[in-house]
Amino acid sequence: MIPHRLSAHAKKTHQLHLLAHVKKGHKQQLHGIIFYEERNFQGRSYECMSDCSDMSSYLSRCQSCRVESGCFMVYERPNYMGMQFFLRRGEYHDMQRMMSMGMMFDTIRSCRMIPYHRGQFRMRIYERENFGGQMNELMDDCDNIMERYRMSDCMSCNVMDGHWLMYEQPHFRGRMMYLRPGEYRSFRDMGMSGTRFMSMRRITDMC
């Protein structure tokens, strides 16, 4: 097939994204991921080096991808909503088969680049929405909030430092959600209704 070509506007947008990753005085390694419409890196492709809120204008579906550098979060719906999956550097020949392990969704509609964080990690988790109920502060991974804190649920949180992954089951299993610094008053508003988060892990990969 003819390789997918970006419009002049899309190319300019990508150039601006690239410039955003170059800090004054020194350059950072750029992150990159290539999505393909078919399995085994076949069909039309789309290369992304930053966040993309809606991939439908570039690809009709995504069945495989290759992470050249960096770490990315991919989502089943536009605007970083719905089911999520964490990708580090490597080749993913069949996304549907890989995601079928309790996290099956048809295709990828948006993706978010995860910057590498240097420094401490700190997050406060709350038992109820809007920072209600029991509160505990984390600075490292927690594989089971019930065993460590006697918390039966986590429904809101405040990420002060670092980037984190939340998991619905203990020991970092099941559906996941990516969180960067900010306040999260209700996980339901993020398209994760009905999901309980029972373990949390810092994203320390340099990828």
TrEMBL record:
SUPFAM superfamilies: gamma-Crystallin-like. Coiled coil: none annotated. Residues 31-69, 70-115, 162-204 form the Beta/gamma crystallin 'Greek key' domain. Pfam families: Crystall. It comes from the Eukaryota. Keywords: Eye lens protein, Repeat. GO terms for biological process: lens development in camera-type eye; visual perception. GO terms for molecular function: structural constituent of eye lens. Signal peptide: none annotated. InterPro entries: Beta/Gamma-Crystallin, Beta/gamma_crystallin, G_crystallin-like. Transmembrane segments: none annotated. The keyword Repeat applies. Belongs to the beta/gamma-crystallin family. Crystallins are the dominant structural components of the vertebrate eye lens. This is Zgc:153846. It comes from Seriola dumerili. The lineage of its organism: Eukaryota, Metazoa, Chordata, Craniata, Vertebrata.
